[in-house]
Amino acid sequence: MTGVLAGRSALVTGASRGIGRGIALGLAAAGADVAVNWYRPPSPEFGRDNGADVASVVAEIEAMGRRAVAVEADVSNGAAVRAMVDEVVLSLGGLDVLVNSAGICPFHDFLTMPEELWDRVHAVNLRGAFLCSQAAARVMVDQGRGGRIISVSSISALVGGGQQAHYTPTKAGVHSLMQSIAIPLGPHGITCNSVLPGAIGTDINRDDWSDPQKLAYLNGRIPIGRLGEPDDVAGPVVFLASPAARYVTGAALLVDGGLYVNLQ
Ligand SMILES: NC(=O)C1=CN([C@@H]2O[C@H](COP(=O)(O)OP(=O)(O)OC[C@H]3O[C@@H](n4cnc5c(N)ncnc54)[C@H](O)[C@@H]3O)[C@@H](O)[C@H]2O)C=CC1
Ligand SMILES: C[C@H](O)[C@@H]1OC(=O)[C@H](O)[C@@H]1O
């Protein structure tokens, strides 16, 4: 889909690594200029510092001949999100595509789960998608040239996880958010959709997949025959961002190699 996004400006949250990084590179390969959101956690318990990672993503995008800008913000902080979107508009001259990819999943037992952990996972995954979507939509409406909002939900919007009682509701919520905002934004030519990745190899599941039995189980359930990679998610996101998807809104696209349908 080279060139289908030429002249468009995109913002990808959580783009310093993992799926967000893959999406940022995919959008740039399709012709978009890209703002790469990253986050510096207040302490290591909130995740690792992404300063070095984001510099390499910016460099890779610039090497493709596109403009790239790194924008730091905690997506759960409304003031920081609105300042980030203002900075993107100033740097790239507008905003046509938002991809909400920032997310966390600190695996935890249900019976001992602290309220604070529940709140943080919701703040980053769901409140963050709301804040970024609202700030971006305001810009898109003012610009008057339509737009695309795409959120990285999950197969976890459809199925449970024994260590994910805090996480799976946020992923169902993110998809529901896209459905609801598709209604007021449709008349402005702004489409709102979600992608639902299955099991994609990134930092978020590195510890969980260090159990060889779990890894073998997951591999065995995927009809396509392998775990996913960030680039597997980028293609469907580029499609949803492209003119070819102009009549797709409020939709959810499973990107899971068939994991969901393979019960037996
Ligand atoms: N890896 C997988 O199997 C799947 C992942 N997902 C979703 O994909 C998205 C990306 O996750 P991965 O790339 O897998 O994990 P990852 O851990 O590699 O990336 C997460 C990104 O979110 C950023 N982030 C975390 N907290 C943030 C905050 N408060 N503000 C801004 N950015 C923040 C991190 O800095 C990082 O760049 C998440 O929303 C996750 O829920 C969905 C389905 C499957
Ligand atoms: C973090 C998990 O391994 C991963 O995240 C998801 O959303 C998938 O459902 C997997 O559970």
Automatic annotation (TrEMBL):
Organism: Virgisporangium aurantiacum
Family of the protein in this entry: Belongs to the short-chain dehydrogenases/reductases (SDR) family.
GO biological process: fatty acid biosynthetic process; rhamnose catabolic process
Catalytic EC class: oxidoreductase
Name this polypeptide is given: L-rhamnose 1-dehydrogenase (NAD(P)(+))
Enzyme Commission numbers on file: 1.1.1.378
Record key words, sorted: NADP, Oxidoreductase, Rhamnose metabolism
Pathway membership: Carbohydrate degradation; L-rhamnose degradation
Domain of life of the source: Bacteria
GO molecular function: oxidoreductase activity, acting on the CH-OH group of donors, NAD or NADP as acceptor; quinone binding
Catalytic reaction(s) noted: L-rhamnofuranose + NADP(+) = L-rhamnono-1,4-lactone + NADPH + H(+); L-rhamnofuranose + NAD(+) = L-rhamnono-1,4-lactone + NADH + H(+)
